[in-house]
Every structure is written in structure tokens, then in C-alpha cells.
Design goal:
The longest helix is centred in the middle third of the chain and has 15 residues. β11 and β12 form a beta hairpin. The strands form 3 sheets. A 5-stranded parallel beta sheet has the order 2-1-3-4-5, with helices on both faces. Strands 6-7-8-9 form a 4-stranded antiparallel beta sheet, with helices on one face. It has a 3-stranded antiparallel beta sheet with strand order 10-12-11. α1 packs across α5, α6 crosses α7 and α6 packs across α8. It is globular, with a radius of gyration of 18 Å. By secondary structure, the protein is of the alpha/beta class. It has 8 helices and 12 strands. The chain has 2 domains: 118 residues, 3-Layer(aba) Sandwich (Rossmann fold), CATH 3.40.50.2300; 96 residues, Arc Repressor Mutant, subunit A (Orthogonal Bundle), CATH 1.10.10. Pfam families: Response_reg (PF00072), Trans_reg_C (PF00486). This is DNA-binding response OmpR family regulator. One of its GO terms (molecular function) is phosphorelay response regulator activity. InterPro entries: CheY-like_superfamily (IPR011006), OmpR/PhoB-type_DNA-bd (IPR001867), Sig_transdc_resp-reg_receiver (IPR001789), WalR-like (IPR039420), WH-like_DNA-bd_sf (IPR036388).
Amino acid sequence: MNKVLLIDDDVELTTLLQEYLTEEGYEVVTETDGRAAIAAAAGNTVDIIVLDIMMPRMNGIEVLQRIRKLSQVPVLMLTARGDDIDRISGLNLGADDYVPKPCSPGELAARLRAILRRAGQAATGASTDTLRAGQLVIHSGSRTAEWRGEALDLTGTEFSLLEVLARGAGQLVSKQDISKRAFGKPLTPFDRRIDVHISSVRQKLGLREDGQSWIQSVRGQGYQLLVD
């Protein structure tokens, strides 16, 4: 049973979501203060955190920053509908996904399943194959990666995205294919989460000797992982 920590000061909403997720088979713990999320990440006591951005005392962005210094536990952000700045900030800091509020319990549950599946926490019989693409080594079973002989510190979402690019290394992979294969859903108009996650992975890979990124983009089409 996966354990979910739900952080939101909206008592009515958290009660509704807790009841629904419990019926879906999750163990759900609710808190109203972001400091509980930091403690849970430090103690590795939960499988995933659902974190509201608009929190008292310490907002969700600050909480996420502190979590990512301690752990790569998956984090799903709850954001105000239409607030792109908060969404992009969260993704840049390592959030795995976001759901705009008000959200339906069914949508939240679906997003949680997708994130946990990508993180390998809910999957059974995971592949143990090793994929090599130039200086990149992908271990699908353990969902870990190495770059130039060093371990890459990736979130679950970043790993899924990089694995898709590695399997098509040297070739253009469309944004639609990335969304379906890495995130398990079709790309929607104006959805920038792929671009934000790509930006984060680029920073972790660094630059080539010619000063260019290892992940090249073709505007409006997709991305290509270079291997030479």
C-alpha cells in the first residue's frame, strides 16, 4: 500500500481527498503545515507528497526547495488554476507534476498512479535492462542513471523523460511521443511541463565541448539526445 502525505490547509478539501484516496487503496496522512512534508522527506516515511502551493507560514515553493535538498520523493503540486508562474516554478524546483485547484478526486488519483508508476513504486516485474547511449547509462529496473561515469541525481519524472530520449538517441522524438511514453498521457495545448523538465535535465548533463546542449530542440516539434 502506497503512503500519501497530503499537505493543504483547506480542511474540507483534504477530508474529501483523503476519503476518496483511502477507498482507492492508499494510506493517507493529512497535514496543514508544510514543515510536516519536510520532516517526512527527511525520514523517508512516505511514497509521495501532495503539496498545496498556498500554505500558511511557509509556502509550497519554499517547502519544495527544502524537500529537494533532502530527498527525491515524488511531489505533486496543487496550484491555483491558470497560475503558470507557480506551476513553472514548481516544475523547475523538481515537482513531478501539478494539478490545478479545484481538482476532482478522480483526477488526483489518476495523477498519483501515473507518478508512482513512473517512479517504479507501484510497478511489478520491472525490466532490469541497461541502456547505453553514448556517455549515458540508464538502468531501467532500478530507475537510476549514470552520466560520464557519475550518478545522475534525477527526479522520477526526469528519469522517465531522459529514458525516452535515450531510447531514441540521435533521433528527433516528438513532444507528443515524449508525453505519451514518459507521462502516460497525450500532450495538451499550452502544456509546458516537458520544456521545463528538459531544461532541468539539460542543466544536470552540462554542455558539450562546442558549448551546445546535449539535448537539442526543434521548435514546436520535439527533442533529440546527442550521443557523439
